[in-house]
Amino acid sequence: MELRAYAKINLALDVVGRKDDGYHELRTIMQQIDLYDEIKLHAEAEIGGSGSQGQILISCNDSMVPTDERNLAHKAAKLLFDEFEITDSILIEIEKNIPVSAGLAGGSTDAAAVLTGVNEYFGLGLSQEELIARGVKIGADVPFCVMGGTAYAGGIGEELIPLGALDDYIVLVAVPDTRVSTKWAYNKFDEIAASGNVRHPDIDQLRAAIEMEDFGCVPEFLGNVLEFATMPEYPIISKVKSTMMQNGAAGALMSGSGPSVYGLFMDEDKAAKAYDVLDMFNLVPEERIFLTAFHN
Ligand code: ATP
Question: Distance, CA 137 to ligand 1 centroid (Å)?
Answer without folding.
Answer: 15
